[in-house]
Write a structure and sequence with these properties.
- By secondary structure, this protein is mostly helical.
- The protein has one domain: Homeodomain-like (Arc Repressor Mutant, subunit A), CATH 1.10.10.
- About 60% of the residues lie in helices and about 0% in strands.
- The chain is built from 3 helices and no strands.
- It starts with 7 loop residues before the first helix and ends with a helix.
């Protein structure tokens, strides 16, 4: 079965939106990539691809 194509621009937007929200909520130093990826609904490896 073929994987659906990802839209890098949409994924990037989701990551940035999640990061900004978490940074505003928790602070810069308390926000990690694991939390950002979980909030954006992507795997940790995806953030390296975009």
């Amino acid at each position: 079965m073929q994987q659906p194509k990802r839209n890098p621009a949409l994924t990037r937007e989701r990551l940035v939106t999640a990061a900004l929200g978490l940074i505003l909520k928790n602070g810069y130093h308390a926000t990690g990539i694991d939390a950002i990826c979980a909030e954006a609904g992507v795997t940790k490896g995806v953030h390296f691809e975009i």
